[in-house]
Amino acid sequence: LAGTPTSSQSPVRPSIPESLSPCPCPAGKGDPAWPAPEWRPPASHGQRPAPQGHAQRLTRRRHSSEQVPPEYDPPADFRSGKLLQERAGGDARDSRQALRAGMGSRHSRICSQEEVVIPYASDNDSGSVDLQPSNLEDIKKDPSNIELTVLDADLSDIPTLPQESLSGSLESLTQEEPLKEASTERLIQSIQEVFNGELKGELEKLTFLRSLSTLSRTLSYDETTESFIHSHTAKIVHILNVLMQEEPPNSLLNPVRQEVFVTIADLSYQDVHLLFGSEDRTELFSFITKSVIALPSVRNLLQPQEVMPSEPYSSECLYRQTFQAFSEMLQSLVVKDPHLENLDTICKHMDPWLQSVKDHERERATASMAQVLKCLSRHLSLKPPLRFQRLGHLVALMALLCGDPLKEVAEEAAEGTHYLLHITLRLKYTTRKKKNHQSLRRALKKCQEFLDLYDIKQFYSCPFNIAQVVFEVFLSSNELCQFVMTTLDGLKNLKHPCTQQSAGELLITLVKNAESRFEKVPEIMGVICSQLSVISQPSLREQIITTVSLFISRPKYTDTVLNHLLCHPIPYDRHLAELWRTLEVELPSTTWILWRLLRKLQKCHNVPTEEKMAYVAVAATDALYEVFVGNRFQAATFRLFPQLLMTLLIQVHHSIGLTMSDVAIPSSLCTEQEMSSEVTPLCFAMQAIKTLLLRTLCWQEFSIMEKHKGWTLLEGKDCHLQGVFLLANALLERNHLLAHKVMYLLVPLLNRGNDEHKLTSAGFFVELLRSPLARRLPSIYSTVRLIEWLHHGSYLFRILALRGLRNLTRHQEMDTQREDIKSLLPCLLDSLCEPDEEIVLLAMQIILPLVGTMDFTTLAAMMRTLFSLFGDARPDVRHFAMVLFGASIRSVKYSDKKIIENQVLDSLVPLLLYSQDENVTIAEESKRVLTICAQFLKWKLPQEVYCKDPWYIKPAEAETICKFFGKKCMGKINILAQTLTYSKNTKLPIRRSAVLFVGLLSKHMDHCELMMKGTDWIENDLTDLLHDPEPSLRVIAAQALFQVQKVKAEPEPEQRVSWLRKLMGCLPT
């Protein structure tokens, strides 16, 4: 064989007698992943193995068959008996030498009847770590622990792991006599031939791999070998890739795989890494990992040999040795890894297998990872910069595996987690910052106390404590995020509910303990929201929602969580709706969260109305609705009711007439699903405000809004303020305490925001001024502000100002405010001539309480204006004009009565005729004011004036009234001419009453004066009425015309001459 040492050299691989039968490998039940020996420094020749530790005995029992007695050490190595006996405490390299020693023949090179020994360490090496200061002092004195010589006084009690020096192991690599130059050249030549050709048979492959492994030993002292290896590394990687790809993926038929692993490990010890760097090397690492971890279960691997027992290799032994070689290869990568970059790469490649759904794959990966961590923890020598970027992910993964339903996986993970803790302690101390001395000291003390309670013998029962109590203290914010992300991925493990449950508990505990040290909260929220649609188990969904609740209740993260949740499509799907409705937050935090959500909506109301509505506004409105429906924030809802109510009312105003196309939807939310046309910003706002009233027990207010169609008014563009007025009045009437809270809230906010904001706030505020509590408001917040709005350019603000002034004037004890309002009388009187009915009515209602304070000139001018409004086409204007006119007459002082008498007399005929109006309210008010006028004139009206029946039904009563007013007004006013002018009124009852009144008056006319003045003008008007479309009017007009003509034709009686002359004297000539 090329490259085989001469007789003068130390034998590289001792031969095994061909007579030896294959090694007896016990057939275990189940599919165990056999333990891999850890890398250990070599012991001196003749050294006896250390006593068995608990962890080693447990590991062997876990990976051995039931046939092995409890006290028996089952074989776990593949080294020759002689060499193993000499190096019972030796390193992984001894094991590989034994492997090659057993390759003497094709049929019996693997297994031996000699005892195979598991290399293990005593409890002093792998047991619980002594953290006492005395132990630390010994470590300080060790020159190999340079980092600990600079310990600060206040951190002198850092827990450390006994470190093993690499010097002994490195010496062992060169203890054998160096190869002669000729041997080295032959090895290089044989390897070179492979580069130029190809490997066809198994023997050629093994020969190549052994030669490469043997040659690697000369790297430390042979420059030719070093140059050759480094210049041909790419080719070596390529050939190893080819060799691995030629191996059947689902079976294990020969030792080529394990020899590849041994070769890679040998080169790794010489700092020639074939698995790190280029893409080809990464691919080789990935393929190697898959070739071992993805093998079928041990039971399936053994089946072919049970069918064909003539196979040259024992499948069970071959599997065990291959797996051991793989584990030793991984350990060789971290023995000298001061920056932990190799560990990071190993974790990356092992990650998918640690999360495999297949039990045997997960068990193999966990066992390998545990051995890697154990090896690293015992040979850790860290130097900055550290490049291990997956600590948080690895901690979470190992913690989840601790709760694996497969017992073997859980135990391996627990052991690995123990060693990972020690690695973390050293790592965090190495990267410590001076400003964090105290926090690090507390963390170290906590860790020390924990490890004092739980040593490695008890560690299998408490892995979660490590992950939850200890690791959380040391993980950075980025590592905490990795932990959470990995734990969330564990929730998707639908095959193993117990893993899901463990992930949920782990997640909640970590978030509770880590408090405010997370940074990538949006990413965490993104994963959580995506998981909600996958997980259907109620308990797990509750745990996820609890996690969100913990994050959102931290003031530092509240806005971050809200921003993420508000960036989802609306209406929210059932999963997000459930999240909003079932948030579990402590009572003190509910108000804060609801307030921050409310502020998101309020900020959107400050933008110009010309721009598109912000998507956050609609999303926040829908979120508030979902929160109200869930009713978990009831106390906070009551506390923030004023702010919530007004903000949602303003959102309603903003949303009127908008569709979702008018909302600035982020491009990231554009979904293929078309949104229904019924989904509008307005519908979200309306459902939110309705739910708010119901959840705050405002049932009566809700009923009033429904009864008076208040919701329809709120949704209308032109009647929105009417809906606001109705809701404000309902609240003031049914729940004055809440109404007062809203009023005090609005006082400083009335001039903020855009137009919709101001109008809605002002509308609610002016209606609340009806409350007696409004009297306590300083005038600067009430009257002065209303006066400013009265002169506002907007018609709606003028309306609001007048409504507010009207409500203020209704209070009796508001002398100061009334004086301010009194100064507005000229403006209010001008408002009586406005074309808008509402302005006129409001002005009249404001003036009414101020009539008694007016001077005579203003009063007389106002009465003339009111008199002109008696015939207004707007019924309410006519009605209030009469009311105000009657109040004005009552307020006239005695000294001014003579001056105002003519105005009162002129109002008699209109009031008398409007008493026949079809509008009952106007008719009754006319009679009432007519009575006031009669009292002013000291007249006593006949009772027929108060008759409710129309005059044309009871002409006798009408004639009595006519006689009374004809007699009383004789010589004072031209009552006939004034009555005749109303014959052209637009309202039929008024025209009919006027024509009837003219006919009755003609009976008592002075014949001579009538002939002198003429009756043509009366007859012409009555003749025109004969063509009126109303039949009843034509009949009455004909009767009146006949009466006038009759009076004209008859001679004047003597007794009537005097009276008629006086009557006709007032007619125009």
TrEMBL record:
Residues 1-110 are annotated as: Disordered. It comes from the Eukaryota. Residues 84-97 have a biased composition (Basic and acidic residues). Residues 186-335 form the MROH2B-like HEAT-repeats domain. Keywords: Repeat. The keyword Mitochondrion does not apply. GO terms for cellular component: cytoplasm. Residues 785-1044 form the Maestro/Maestro-like HEAT-repeats domain. The keyword Repeat applies. This is Maestro heat like repeat family member 8. It comes from Otolemur garnettii (Small-eared galago). The gene is MROH8.
